[in-house]
Amino acid sequence: MIRIPKITIGRSEGDIEKYGSKKGTGYIGKHLVGDKGEAHVANPIYMDLSRPHVIGVFGKRGTGKSYSMGTMAEEILKAPESISNNLSAIIVDPMGIYWSMKFPNENDTALLDDWGLKPDAMDVQLYIPEGQAEEFREKDIPYDKTFTIKPGELSTSDWAMTFDIKLNEPRGILLEKVLRDLEEDYGEDYSLDNMVEYASTQGDFKEETRKALKNRFNAAKEWGIFSVEGSELSEFTERGTLTILDLSLFGAIRGSWSVRSLVVGLLSNKILRERMSSKRLEEMREMEGMQTSESPIVWMFIDEAHQFLPNDGETPASDPLLSWVKIGREPGVSLVLCTQQPYKLNPDALSQCDVVLSHRLTSKADIDALKNIMQNYMRYDLSTYIDNLPKAKGCAICLDDNSERVYKLRMRPRVSWHAGGTPTAIKDE
Ligand SMILES: Nc1ncnc2c1ncn2[C@@H]1O[C@H](COP(=O)(O)OP(=O)(O)OP(=O)(O)O)[C@@H](O)[C@H]1O
Ligand SMILES: [Mg+2]
Q: Could you say which of 89, 112, 229, 318 is the most buried, measured as most Cβ atoms within 10 Å of its Cβ?
């Protein structure tokens, strides 16, 4: 009998020896052997879920990036309880396409059958901003819970970045003063109305400066994400859960990406802080000889990641996400960054990716950005690998720093429905 070698991306040789190549992994696709039209699928490819990773998912428009992220997230939920109990996942969904994971992929029953899979609904928790609930209901988009954030938890620079205000201009100086006064009087427990009130009463500033800042605060009320109490964000990281944070309905507001980044920045900071303190607790318990209970590894999947962690400029999510990238191994947080244009992604994040899944890319700038990070162990030029990919959707190359190997693969079809499909003018008969 021929023994088919198993491929587990993201897993080091040491871990393969210790855990084997399948335990604690997800089945994400099949190895592609041969080039272009001649290529055929061979043995399964698994992805390590048991260790923290930074994964880049790239490819030009419509090549299957969001779909592939959904596949990885499905694997976290589908893992045996002993594994999924040690994991927790969040999808940051700026385009509003992941709600459909709640439904089985009945459209692709035949394709799934070829892969030995069946359509399946995922038990995801869909969170939306509290103030947008009515709009979601009107649009008939299902959701489970709403969330809010506390204005008092945001820093002066978070607000300044969101409002596009420089801290050394009069509005910036006023902003800093208002927040300082509020903190003195209320700690972290103040509302946007309090902010408007405090901006109005600062007599040392010109009327137009006060008015400009008040207008910004009033506009922020419309976003529907603030409340004095704020939500308990820890429920997003419960064991064995997949949370989808639908941030799509900010589309119509000015600076919508900054607002989304504000939410992501705050959430990432909180999760990291929580994970770091629980890690310390675990270590202390270990020292005291008590039984340790490992906290779940938190996986955060971010679609359109270049908007949150851009190459040029900074967003309220930049620093928090860079901390995930740089120190995430210790506290156990994984990040999956998905974008059409890797060269638009912050280079520090790009260079920290230990796994890259790249669908077809054609722009030289994007290919060069990838070449720079994982050239050492490639036998050919990266463009040659990409050129040799078949045209079919879901085909990609995988650069794995852990095994120092490059694979061509076809991602498996989704068992849950993917709503991000490219619309077509030609309808099926
Ligand atoms: N592995 C796959 N198997 C089968 N079909 C796939 C696969 N990956 C993608 N597709 C098909 O391709 C379509 C486009 O994929 P997807 O929405 O992930 O594109 P994208 O790369 O995220 O594009 P954009 O940059 O516009 O966001 C999907 O709706 C699906 O029909
Ligand atoms: Mg997409």
A: 89
Query: Tell me: the pLDDT tens digits for 228-267?
Result: 999 987 788 888 999 999 999 887 777 899 999 999 999 9
Q: How many CB atoms within 10 Å of residue 86?
A: 19
Instruction: Give the pLDDT confidence of 3-36 residue by residue, as tens digits.
Output: 666 899 999 988 999 889 999 999 999 999 988 8
- Rounded-to-integer distance, Cα 145 and Cα 125, Å: 7
Residue nearest to atom 20 of ligand 1 (CA): 62
Q: Are residues 371 and 256 in the same domain?
A: yes
**Cα–Cα dist 110/143, whole Å:** 29
Query: Is ligand 1 within 6 A of the CB of residue 30?
Result: no
Nearest atom in ligand 1 to 413's CA: 3
Q: Does the beta carbon of 65 sit less than 6 angstroms from any atom of ligand 1? A: yes
Ligand 2: centre distance to CA 13 (Å)? 32
Structural domain count, the chain? 2
Provide the token pair at 394.
């879901």
Q: What residues make up the domain containing 167?
A: 151-221
